[in-house]
Amino acid sequence: MAEKLLEVKNLKQYFNAGKPSEVKAIDNISFDIYRGETFGLVGESGCGKSTTGRTIIRLYDATDGEVLYDGVSVHGNKSKSEVKSLNQKMQMIFQDPYASLNPRMKVMDIIAEGLDIHGLVKNAKERKQKVIELLETVGLNKEHAERYPHEFSGGQRQRIGIARALAVNPEFIIADEPISALDVSIQAQVVNLLRDLQKEKGLTYLFIAHDLSMVKYISDRIGVMYFGKLVEMATAEELYKNPMHPYTKSLLSAIPLPDPIYERSRVRTPYNPEDHKYGPDEKVEFREISPEHFVLCSDREFAQMKKEIK
Ligand SMILES: Nc1ncnc2c1ncn2[C@@H]1O[C@H](COP(=O)(O)OP(=O)(O)OP(=O)(O)O)[C@@H](O)[C@H]1O
Ligand SMILES: [Mg+2]
């Protein structure tokens, strides 16, 4: 039986709650992440992916719902030592490699910050040694330690972000679109690096992306998000074989294939939420259509999907 490392239960994150400008960035989502797996979270810009990551690591208080990490509630009143322990176990690689590194700090100090906070090194020599080791782990070298973030390319900055996250020996890493700001030629390198690190260190990942092309290859399970809601969740294989929600189908239809004949005839299926035509009494819920495969749908849609599923 797979062990649940993270449990997200009925999580809500409303910005400007109660005001006319209210945004339901996360609107009642639930999912688990098992120890050692990669859980991919996909959806278009603004659907709430980063907010989900940021709420999980306590950058935001949740409006409602619960996040459990290894059985311990993440939100609410916590002692200093509990917060410190959670901050060490959960790390985030931020979406924007340009904005997420302090421009006035040398790479040495950016990476060593977590080491200092968590008392993981005894002296300056050990600190320097550890930073150099981390730089080498992510494919950089000791000369880079004395430089400032603006002296690096986007791919290198993302590597610095990865080194910073790794510094405190986390178990769980939220990688928020770690490759989307990078050149295509560098994307595979960073993904391979994350994969190798996972194998080596037994890491668990929440991997956020806006399309399915890369997530398909690296995720064990995938959740598809649309306007603050999870609309489908399944193993990567099942999601590709049996996409059930029309939004998932639309996302899949957007992936180009290296096949010119297929490409010429590929049509992007648009998603129109109006197509559901839900009646006022219809209950739209996240339902299990086959083991571990969930779809947000009404009873009527569920019955129809049951007939279609392969
Ligand atoms: N601090 C904030 N205050 C108010 N609204 C916010 C805040 N952060 C995010 N939002 C809104 O919440 C929604 C979800 O934003 P979020 O950044 O989570 O989307 P995303 O899925 O990560 O998008 P992208 O793919 O562009 O990174 C958006 O409508 C956004 O404008
Ligand atoms: Mg985002």
TrEMBL record:
Could you identify this protein by its name?
A: ATP-binding cassette domain-containing protein
Sorted alphabetically, which Pfam families does this protein's record hold? ABC_tran, oligo_HPY
Q: What does the entry give for GO biological process?
A: peptide transport; transmembrane transport
Q: Which GO terms describe its molecular function?
A: ATP binding; ATP hydrolysis activity
Q: Which family does the record assign?
A: Belongs to the ABC transporter superfamily.
Q: Which organism is it from?
A: Sporosarcina thermotolerans
Q: Which InterPro entries match?
A: AAA+_ATPase (IPR003593), ABC_transp_ATP-bind (IPR050319), ABC_transporter-like_ATP-bd (IPR003439), ABC_transporter-like_CS (IPR017871), Oligopep_ABC_C (IPR013563), P-loop_NTPase (IPR027417)
**Which UniProt key words apply to this protein?**
ATP-binding, Nucleotide-binding, Transport
